[in-house]
Hints:
- This protein is an alpha/beta fold.
- The chain has helices at residues 31-48, 73-84, 103-114, 129-134, 152-166, 184-195, 224-228, 252-259, 263-266, 289-292, 300-323; strands spanning 62-67, 88-93, 119-124, 141-146, 173-177, 199-203, 219-221, 233-236, 274-276.
- Aspartic acid binds at residues 145, 151, 184-185, 238, 240, 278-279.
Amino acid sequence: MSSAASHPAATPEGAHPFPHGHLTGIDGLQPWEIAFLLDEAEQWVALNRAATKHDDRLAGLTQINAFFENSTRTLLSFEIAGKRLGADVVNMHAAQSSVKKGETLLDTAITLNAMRPDIIVMRHGSSGAVQLIADKVDCPVLNAGDGWHEHPTQALLDALTIRRRKGAIAKQRVAICGDILHSRVARSNILALTALGAEVRVVAPPTLMPPAVERLGVTAFTDFDAGLDGCDVVMMLRLQTERMKSGLVPSAREYFALYGLTRERLEKAAPDALVMHPGPMNRGIEIASDIADDLDRSAITEQVEMGVAVRMACLDVLTRKGRGVEGWV
Ligand code: ASP
């Protein structure tokens, strides 16, 4: 369920609901702009549950998914989202290429721009790379994850999942647990959930806790049990070993013993606490399989479902100006 009443802030009178040309992060968005995207996504949740899942508002538009880093669910989700809205979707798999930040990335921007896309969805291993492209091209750019920086559509789909399951985001006590340091998901979620009035905690070993994280308006815990105490939502994160230069965790076994979510540990949280994970999951490292697969507690597959709806909303909203939609020109 969801309702306008669950918004921490309605769009102020006279304000444009979403005045941005790109979506490079949650940073810089007003709470009502985030809530607007969630509201827009609701219609697509309904369409995606219908027998025929089609709308043609992006017909004739070209969507390029430029992925310089591996992805399963995000790429597929953006492809499905674009196709359900009628766009011509082209995937550029550059994960294996040697493209690096700097001149080469700018050349890529110029090349993509010359093909006159109507929207570019981009994932890149370097923080800030998506903004760099957004500054150079003529169409809207959507960040599908850049380095350690942001993953805005993940935060939106997580917020939509929480709002639908819990009825509201404001006042929910949310624990984001695990590899906070390397996680763009954590960063975007902290920004979105605090903006929408949730009480956010981050739980991590000291080596995986970003310095001065409290400045983002969260409470930091290195003790997992203390961090989970009374939480309404427990969001587990993948241990991002590919982003670790040196061993920041002792061993997978020890990590699971100290920071892995088990049924026993979940009892520290509220009795109806919702378990989330952005995927891909490391079963037996940050989360026990029986919890991940417990449909009463885990919203993990619902998160994937909400991902398509949220991405449809973002593709629709960001292309409105180009399509000459009234109020967006
Ligand atoms: N899929 C998420 C991301 O792209 C989370 C992860 O990879 O652990 O950031």
